[in-house]
Structure formats: C-alpha cells, structure tokens
Amino acid sequence: MSVDAIEHWKIYLEHPEVGAIMHVHAWVDGIAATEINYPCGTAELADAVADLIRVAPEPGRAIIGLKNHGLTITGPSLEEIFERVGPHIQRQVPMS
Ligand SMILES: [Zn+2]
C-alpha cells in the first residue's frame, strides 16, 4: 500500500497543530473508522479520513480507522504517537 500522500497533505493543511502523521496496518479498539474500504492513495480515502479527523475530540491527537486496512494517527510528534497509541495497538486489522 502507498504512503497516502494526498491524505496526509490535507491533514497537515487543515490542522496546523499536527506535527506527525503515522499510517500503520494495525488496529485499535473503539475508534472512529471509515465505512468503506477505499483504495490507498485515493481522494475518496483522503476525504473520508479528513472528515473523521475534523470531528475528532482532538484533531491534533486523533486515531482514525481505515476499514479493512489500518490506521491513520495524528500527533504532535512520532514519539508522542508511539507512547500514546503503542500500548493499544493490535497487529491484526479486523476484516468485515
Ligand atoms: Zn496502507
């Protein structure tokens, strides 16, 4: 899968407080997630993720699920993301 460049660019533009974005093929329970499994790197995926980040309690520290695919996580830095999300990571993405 590609490094969703369009998606990440949109997020940085809309949320200046975001210092890092991580995309991983793993999962975290209880997160908001896209309802459709859009292909990596498409404008549809970028829009769906951007919509969910916009309504997240803290857009600068959001964990968004990409259905049947993985996660896009925002944070002030990669270190902060690892510390906050690392303990909750599940290596298997639930498929539905
Ligand atoms: Zn991917």
Q: Topology, pairings included?
A:
Blueprint: H1 5-14, E1 20-24, E2 32-33, H2 43-54, E3 63-66, E4 70-75, H3 78-85
Parallel strand pairs: 2-3
Antiparallel strand pairs: 1-4, 3-4
Bound molecules: zinc ion.
Zinc ion is lined by residues 1, 23, 25, 40, 69-70.
Question: How would you describe what is shown here?
Answer:
This protein is an alpha+beta fold. 31% of the residues lie in helices and 18% in strands. It has helices at residues 5-14, 43-54, 78-85; strands at residues 20-24, 32-33, 63-66, 70-75. A 4-stranded mixed β-sheet has the order 1-4-3-2, with helices on both faces. Strand 2, helix 2 and strand 3 form a beta-alpha-beta unit. Helix 1 runs parallel beside helix 2. The radius of gyration is 12 Å and the shape is globular. The model has no long low-confidence stretch (mean pLDDT 92). Bound molecules: zinc ion.
Share in β-strands: 15-25%
How many distinct helices? 3
- Global mean pLDDT: 92
Pairing-aware structural class of the strands and helices?
alpha+beta
